[in-house]
Amino acid sequence: MLSTYRVLDLSDEKGTVCGQILAQLGADVIKIEAPGGSSERSKGPFVSDICHPERSLFWFVFNRGKKSVTLHLESEKGKEIFKRLVRNANIVVESFSPGYLDSIGLGYSALREINPRIIVVSISPFGQTGPYKDYKGPDIVIEALSGYMYLCGDPDRAPVRVSYPLAYGYAGTQGAVGCLIALFAQEITGEGQHVDVSAQEAMSEFTLMAPLFWDKLGKINMRSGQFRGGTSRRTRDVWQCKDGWVAFGIYGGQLGGRVNKELVMWMDSEGLADEFLKSVDWERLDMATVPQEDIDKIEKATGDFFMMHTMAELYEGAIKRGVNLCPIWNPRELLGSVQLGARDFWVQVKHAELGISITYPGSFFKSSAVFPSQAGERAPLISEHNNEIYEGELGMSVLELSQLKEKGII
Amino acid sequence: MLESVFKGINIAEFTIFGLGPVTGKFFSHYGATVVRVESALRPDPTRMWPPYAKGKPGLNRGTFWAHLNTGKHSVGLNLKHTKAASVTRRLVEWCDIVIENFTPGIMESWGLGYEELKKIKPDIILIRISNLGHTGPHSRQRGTGSTLQGLAGFTNLTGWPDRAPAFPYGAISDQYPPPLAAACVIAALLYRRRTGEGQYIDLSQLECSIPFLGPHILDYVVNGRISTRMGNRSSCAAPHGAYRCKGDDRWCTIAVFTEQEWGNFCQVIANPPWTKEPRFSSLRKRKENEDELDKLVEEWTLTKSAEEVMTLMQAAGVAAGVVENTEDMLSDSQLTHRDHFPKVNHPEIGTYVARNDAFRLSRTRGDIKRAPCLGEDNELIYREQLGMSEEEYVNLILEGVLE
């Protein structure tokens, strides 16, 4: 869909997802790495746990479908080459500290002089302006300052972050939308602009309605362990079963009445629904007014039922009966998903240099018109496309390239 | 300066709950005419979700719905009425994009499948967001993000290693489809500009979420390792956690990755003798003795407010951040500076907190207006936009087609 657009991706792990989404949508994305390789390549895990820039699984996942050239941006010659690339590009994505590109003369205002259509997407912890703009913002800090972390974890211990970094993946996703809005505007006006993305603001989306409870009712929502937070009744969402955990919730009414009734019928078919459970009018069950005691009774019987079954049994039954229950899976279990298999979600990607083939998560969309452009492609090696871009496009000679290499510019 | 980039782009939303509506919000903030097609007989349940204005429920009083639907229009239409088809036909002719997130099969039951839409409007862009996608054996399985985040793998990664997973607040997997759907739609608009062709895009919440756990999944595929929840710890930093501070349930996160940061950290806490002990002299050693380390760090943080800890650490180049609760969040100086939570005024709710996008465009400002009351824009859309005559409009109301 975006095959006519070129993106120069200067970002590290904080902005890399933005360029990847654009690549999946068909854009021609060139990652510009420092000579020796981007710092993103030092993010683990690594193939066979060998820490090496060509073995980073993080790099593999988020740079599929991009090309790689190396360039020392701080050198005069490097700046000149970058500016030549900017002339024919639509978008630059960067995630340096706010102000860094300006300080080396490559900020938005300088690039605009070269190409008025250029869009610069800056992804940073807190945005390009404001009191925190120079603060450090690793994932845990963003999860804290976005208000999300306070809402997660067991009440008797510290709030917890998700044990996998989420903030920058999400900031990159939001950045892709901002970038595309700017691209649409570029088509109309012929002018580019600067897109300023804040990971703190992106992550704060995860707090959903929690801030409204403070704004309207003066109520601070708390973390509540395995239970749903922010509701007037204590209801469980994470349940133990025979061999693991499942996610399920009692909702009643329009949202869950039918599902809850189905579950009781299922339990009854195994002789495990008590009289109380069978007497509940699920369609009319209002979670705001039902006594907590009733919920506890329902949950006791439900929990006993789950404990008698495995995750696989419960998921199979849930699918058969249309019950909104999911096992709490790990990657091994996820790879076995029948649904993902039937939709050809996973893709096999060859890494000839390593002599292996790796199963990757596939495209996030399916379209009737165009196929995701990067099916089967692996992430680029360091400087893999130097010749294609510098020689083929910028017309540099072999001699020139080898001189630049000697000087550490490419 | 281009104030409304999507001016002239018309969107019909057949949506419910969060995924569809949040997708539409990116367009209503930037000048598109986004119409939610609703029914008072079968309203979006989210319209009735708390918190309500002044604690009093009502279809137009739920602040969460109002939060999710800023800048949109609303029309009332009874889709189950036999005469609804003539109205939907005109809506589809009028619009560029249809966003829908019902369970697969429902749009078809209203005669609004892709093939039908295409017959009415050949270059229509249809984006469908569902739980598990529109094909495959489980496509009709209904669900919510609260359970689906378990399937995707997020729940297993949240909480303490010695305990059951903690429920990740809200639903992590609900967050990914809306921006990804919006990105697809804008890309499809650009494609249509170039080729004249529309398209149908099928998004599954599960497939939108999984790629973000890619390295975690590949670690299993390639190395056979299944990493799991680890509280607040990180394999490449120590200290790395949320530390209790002065006050009631006050916490500040601190993350020390490099030896230089460790040196700065020690200086901020005034170099107590324990920081010089060999058991903390390298990242590897700090990881080995992390329980004791965390206790000692917390002894210091307990003497300070969370805000002081953050300010002192950040001033010394050490990553730290207050674990903000919702009260902190709404008064956070950075979010306030960036006007992340603008206030808007609604006729039934009064003033409420809306949400800005996570990006600011230097030349194209987003405009965040209040959400509509149900059916508020019937006249504007049916009469002015679709060109219904007064007689027809009145008759359709009397017959119960328009609500």
What can you tell me about this protein's structure?
The complex is a heterodimer of chains A (410) and B (403). By secondary structure, chain A is an alpha/beta fold. Chain A has two domains: 260 residues, Crotonobetainyl-coa:carnitine coa-transferase, domain 1 (Rossmann fold, 3-Layer(aba) Sandwich), CATH 3.40.50; 91 residues, formyl-coa transferase, domain 3 (2-Layer Sandwich), CATH 3.30.1540. In chain A, 39% of the residues lie in helices and 13% in strands. Chain A has 17 helices and twelve strands. In chain A, the strands form three sheets. A six-stranded parallel beta sheet of chain A has the order 3-2-1-4-5-6. In chain A, β10 and β11 form a beta hairpin. Chain B is elongated and about 85 Å long. In chain B, the strands form three sheets. A six-stranded parallel beta sheet of chain B has the order 3-2-1-4-5-6, with helices on both faces. A three-stranded antiparallel beta sheet of chain B has the order 7-8-9, with helices on one face. Chain B is an alpha/beta fold and 403 residues long. The model of chain B has no long low-confidence stretch (mean pLDDT 96). Chains A and B meet through α2, α6, α7, β6 and α8 of A and α2, α6, α8, β6 and α9 of B.
Question: What descriptors fit this protein?
Answer:
heterodimer, A: 410 residues, alpha/beta, Rossmann fold, formyl-coa transferase, domain 3, 6-stranded parallel beta sheet, 17 helices, B: alpha/beta, 2 domains, 3-stranded antiparallel beta sheet, 12 strands
